[in-house]
Task: structure prediction
Amino acid sequence: MTITDRPMQSTRQVQDLHRYEEALRKTGASLIAGVDEVGRGPLAGPVTAAAVILPLDFNAEGIDDSKKLTPRRREMLAERIREHAVAWSIGWCDNAVIDDINILQATKRAMTLAINGLSVRPEHVLIDALSLPELAIPQTAIVKGDSRSVSIAAASILAKVARDEKMQDYDTLYPGYAFGSNKGYGTKAHYDGLDALGPCPVHRRSFLQNYFAGGNAWNKGL
Result:
């Protein structure tokens, strides 16, 4: 598959993305899972995590932090990742869980669900920024891992594509908030919808308390 909407990465950039995986392979680990999440900040929808184990010879050309990629490029790369991965899995925690246990704990739960959903048990897990103390698998937390590790970057792409598709579905189910374009983040169109309609079933009530406490138009049902 040829992807042409962004300049080619240098050989050095591609090699650098493999450095954490290569270091682990020198210790004997071959099944290395990258884990990342999307959706910690939005006012609505789930927090979504992905875990992916890539093969040793995976072509990392074009792989990067999902936030740096266009939607078209993310979708094309997600297809390549799913096609060639040793295993991949998506973990979800919906808005009700987020309201119940808070966004940080929901993020960790979604990551754990993604890892446990892999069809192959990883020997080591590389995680973007966070650690999972209850996970009984060796792990490494990497700050800005989605732009430093090919496995974490691949996970960020899968998670982003999966969550965006979910928010597009919610845009059809709950029109008026512009979920299809803002993916649940606090844009003007989203706030206009909240003022006019109030929260819908996928809004995070715990995230809306401050907004409606500030005297905005709609303040019931939180």
Q: What stands out?
A: The longest strand covers residues 32-38. Strands lie at 32-38, 47-53, 87-93, 124-128, 139-142.
